[in-house]
Structures are given as structure tokens and as C-alpha cells.
Amino acid sequence: MKLIVAVDRNWGIGYGDQLLVSIPNDHKNFRELTTGKVVVLGRKTLATFPQGKPLKYRTNVIFSTDPKYEVDEETIVVHSLEEFLEKAKKFDDNDIYVIGGGSIYKLLLPYCNEAVVTKLDHAYRADTYFPNLDEDPAWQVVSESEEMTYFDIPYRFVTYKRA
Q1: If 0-12 CB within 10 Å is exposed, 13-18 middle and 19+ buried, where does residue 105 land?
Q2: How many angstroms separate the CA atoms of 117 and 18, rounded?
């Protein structure tokens, strides 16, 4: 399983249930990597999407603790880690992308073997953080893009693999 996340200099990922910044090239990279794949996210993250609708051209798996929560007939809703792991067996592990939010990343990070991280060279005000993979000996950088800039924000795409 893989995950995809954008982090600031302090590994912040969000503030007030919103992303820290919206960078068109980051969204393009996200679309290219996840289209046709399985995306795994929490109910609160889904609520931040346009009209609160699942992402098109992907299989959406939504975590919710509410046993009555439903989205639509194409969306898979799971209520526990065990239920998710059972449903995930139907898919190729390399086609599953964890996309947030904070609690879903924390829950599923131990099951991921690759992380695609957009690293923003800027510190934002954040209230949600992702574990710092640079300080975790279980993870190593396997590729890194050239630095790009969006207005005055330098960023790069960094891929980590579990060592």
C-alpha cells in the first residue's frame, strides 16, 4: 500500500480541516498517480472535497465510525481497520493510496511500503501533522524531483520506501 501527502517544513499537513496550501502541480501529480486506483480516506477528508463527493475515476474507500454512514453505491465504507484490511485484499496492494486525513494516515502508515511526499519548503500554521519520515529509520528516500516553485513557495516531490 502507498500513501500520498503534502507536508510543510514541520511535517504539518492541515489546519482547521483544510490543506495548508493548494498547488496546482501538486494536484496534477496527485491525479496522475491516483486516477484508476483505490483511494483511502476518512469521512472528514471526504467532506472537504467539492460538494463532499468521492473522487471520480477512482475506487473510494471511506473510513467512518458511524455504522449508518453511506455515500453512494460505488463507494466502499468501512468502520474498522480489520474491515478495511479484509476489503483491501480484493485490490492490488500497489494500487491502494492512503490520502488522509491525519488519523487515517496514522492508522494505515504501518501497512504502507511507499510514501509520495510533496515537501513544501515553508512553515505554515498547522494543527494536523504527519510523522517525520526523515527521522524514522524504517523509511528511506528513493527519489526526489528537482525543486519547483509556486509563487514564492519552493517544493519538491520525494518518494520514500520502507527500508
Answers
A1: buried
A2: 17
Q: 40-75, pLDDT tens digit by residue?
A: 999 999 999 989 999 999 999 999 999 999 999 999
The structural domains of the chain, with segments of one domain joined by +, span 2-162
User: CB-based burial of residue 139 (10 Å sphere; 0-12 exposed, 13-18 middle, 19+ buried)?
Assistant: buried
Which residues, given as ranges, of the chain have pLDDT below 70? none
Q: In the prediction, which pLDDT does 62 show? A: 98
The dihedral formed by the CA atoms of 2, 4, 10 and 14, expressed in degrees to the nearest 10: -130
CA angle 139, 97, 82 (to 5 degrees): 90
Asked if 36 and 94 touch (Cβ cutoff 8 Å), the reply is no
Query: What is the second-level CATH architecture of the domain 2-162?
Result: 3-Layer(aba) Sandwich (3.40)
**CA–CA gap between residue 151 and residue 142 (Å, rounded):** 27
Find where cell 498547488 sits.
23
